[in-house]
Each structure stands twice: as C-alpha cells, then as structure tokens.
Design a protein that fits this description.
Layout: H1 7-28, H2 33-41, H3 60-73, H4 75-92, H5 100-112, E1 116-120, E2 138-142, E3 145-155, E4 161-170, E5 176-183, E6 189-192, E7 206-216, E8 220-225, H6 235-266, H7 280-309, H8 315-340, H9 342-345, H10 351-358, H11 368-382
Parallel strand pairs: 1-4, 2-4
Antiparallel strand pairs: 2-3, 3-7, 4-5, 5-8, 6-7
Pfam family, one: Acyl-CoA_dh_N
Domain Acyl-CoA dehydrogenase C-terminal: 245-365
Keywords: Flavoprotein, Oxidoreductase
C-alpha cells in the first residue's frame, strides 16, 4: 500500500478491480482468489488484529470503512474478509479463551501471506446455532489430542481458508462444547462444493466434512459443559460483527444507488426527449433512497464511534441496528429495481446482482424475529 494512502483509500482502489471481475465470479460461482492476493499485498489481511501481535490494530470505524469499500466492488470478497476480521477481534477480546500464542501465530501468518480463518458453526440438522442446541460435530479424545468428525454447512471462504474454527461437542458425559482450531489442509478435511446460492455466489460457502481429523490438545478453545454456557454472546463482539456486516450490505446498497443515478441520467426515452432524471417522480424516489442511505450511515457511524470509545452497547440495541440497516439497504436496492424495470432485472446490468446479494443480509444472526422479540420484552418489562 502507498504510504500516503489510508486503509479506506486502499480498499476503494482495490474495489475498482474487484468490481470489474465480480459479475463473472457471480455468474460462474467461482472464488476470487486473486482478490485476496491483492488484499494481502495491500496489507489488509491483519487489519483487525492488535499491534502487539503484529496486526495493524485498526479501529472499528476503519474496519467498517474497509469492508464497506470492498463490498461496493465485490460483496462476496467483503464477506470473507469480514469473517477474518471478526475472528481476529474475537481472539483478542479481554477474557478470550484463545491461547495467546495460537492467536498471535494466526495473525503473523496473515501478515506473511494469504492466510485466512473463519468459524464453522452451522450444521444440517441444527439450523442457526444462535437458536440453541448441541452441535452434531464430535471431538473424541485421542492419544495426540482430539479426533473430529462432523459436517459443517455454509462455510464461508472454504476454498481459501488456512484455518477453520470448528464448533463441536466432546464425547464426555455430560458433553462439553467449544471450538477446535483445524488446519484446513489436515488429512480428513474435505470440501464438498455445494454452494449454489441466489446471492453472494462467489463466497465459497461450501460444506466442510471432517472425518477423523486429528487436532492437537492445545487447539481446543473454550471448552465448557453445555449446560453452563452463557446464552448471550459477548456484547462487544456482537456489536462489532453487526457493524462489519452492516457496512457490507450498506456497501451493496450504495453500489446499487450509484448505478441507478447513472442510468437515470443517461436514459433518454424518445417520447420524453430528456433524461429520466429530469422527472419529479424519479427525483422524489431517489430522495427516499438518499434518506435511507443517510440513516444507515448515521447508524453505522454511531455504532462504530461507541465501540471505539468503549461505550457499552446492549445486545438488543445492536440487534435493532442490524435489522434497520439490513431493511434499509434491501429497500434501496428493491426501489432501484422498481424504478428501472426490465433494465434492473437484466443480467447485463449489475442491479439484479445487487438485489440477489443484498437479500442475503436477512439471513445473518441475529434474525429479525429474535431481535424484535428481545426488544419488545425489554420495553414491556421496563414498564412493570
């Protein structure tokens, strides 16, 4: 990266190239390995890790700026990168169960080369882990540590991961639950290319199958009896995850808005003899889009500011921010499609891809019903 450039500037420069390739990767469902080589070259793969471990120690606001910029060009790349940042942040939290030498080693590998990590939690039978339940993936005691067997689905970034943080239970009675750090090229790890999704098609979110995978003793992270585990995630980690995902989907919405503005200024119907942008109906509709994007910017900037200032952020409030940002980003893209008709749905234009990508925001934890249930209960209990 040029010494005079900020991390956000570097991300925006990369996003131009990423955007030029995004449509083809989307069409093929192929993984953009070249994007991550460029991210490493720009020094952006260890941005969220603390300086004491060799990372750049970026603020929450800086991370959100980078993710939003990358998402503007290639949302699938931004999703994989956000998972990298989330793991770096989680491992460095006060009281983290991660052994520091292990976390430090992963950061150094991301500094030295293209090395990425993500948590593998979702399973075919379990559904969203946030809803509770025991993982079916089992870790059994072995002479060298542990032996892992199971299947994980929606494993984002699986084609490029060097490390997988696999959520599993032990075969103890009662079982303990925690994570196991698995080298992706370990014998017994197999990727089944099952990802054929509507949106974020280049994210490589395939199934990962683990069959007798050997894991060293020291790679077990945070094992606790299942019935003693806290029901709520760490509030800081939860808020930062929502910030990065919110920035990602806001980046998609901004890309859709910018394409719409170009279309409305360039489209000159014969009967009108002037650009569509000259019509009050389109001006009013674009004004509504601007309002939604402004609201998202204020929400995300406030969330980032509070995180960087150490202001406590209730989990319920962070969840409400997630719902609002995702809803408004989706509305922006849907309105853009409605304004452009068949042009917006044509695969030769990027708007239909933005629509498919932005719809994926609804899937991320916490889901809308859980957020509203928690917020409603809190408000009603406060009035008792």
């Amino acid at each position: 990266m040029n010494a005079s450039m900020s991390w956000g500037d570097a991300a925006r420069a990369l996003a131009v190239d990423f955007g030029a390739r995004a449509a083809q990767h989307d069409r093929d469902g192929s993984f953009a390995h070249e994007n991550f080589a460029a991210l490493h070259e720009a020094g952006l793969l260890a941005l969220a890790a603390p300086r004491r471990w060799g990372g750049q120690g970026a603020s929450s606001a800086q991370l959100a700026e980078v993710i939003g910029a990358i998402a503007y060009g290639c949302p699938a790349t931004a999703l994989v990168l956000s998972m990298q940042y989330i793991q770096q942040r989680q491992s460095a939290l006060p009281g983290s169960p991660w052994p520091e030498p292990l976390a430090r080693s992963l950061v150094q590998q991301a500094v030295d080369g293209v090395s990425l990590v993500n948590a593998l939690r979702v399973e075919p039978e379990l559904g969203s882990p946030a809803r509770g339940g025991l993982p079916a993936t089992v870790a059994r005691r072995d002479s060298g540590g542990w032996r892992l067997d199971g299947r994980k689905i929606y494993s984002t970034g699986s084609p490029i991961l060097r490390w997988m943080v696999v959520w599993a239970r032990t075969d103890d009675e009662p079982p303990r639950v925690g994570s196991f750090l698995v080298r992706a090229d370990s014998p017994g790890v197999r990727i089944e290319e099952t990802w054929d999704h509507l949106g974020l098609r280049a994210s490589g979110s395939h199934d990962v199958v683990l069959e007798g995978v050997q894991v060293p003793e020291g790679h077990a992270i945070g094992l606790l009896p299942h019935d003693t585990r806290a029901s709520s995630p760490d509030a800081v980690f939860h808020a930062e995850m929502i910030l990065l995902l919110g920035a990602l989907y806001d980046g998609i919405a901004r890309a859709a808005r910018d394409w719409l503005l170009g279309f409305l200024n360039e489209r000159v119907p014969t009967a009108l003899g002037a650009p569509l942008a000259s019509l009050p109906r389109f001006q009013e509709a674009v004004g509504r889009i601007e309002g939604a994007l402004l609201s998202n910017r204020f929400l995300l900037e406030r969330l980032a500011s509070d995180l960087d200032a150490g202001v406590p952020i209730p989990i319920v409030d962070a969840g409400l921010v997630k719902n609002l940002v995702m809803h408004q980003a989706t509305t922006v893209v849907q309105d853009a499609v409605a304004l452009t008709g068949n042009h917006g749905l044509s695969r030769r234009n990027p708007l239909e891809r933005h629509l498919r990508d932005v719809l994926c925001g609804r899937v991320h934890t916490p889901q809308e019903d859980s957020v509203h249930l928690s917020a409603g209960r809190r408000a009603l209990q406060a009035e008792r």
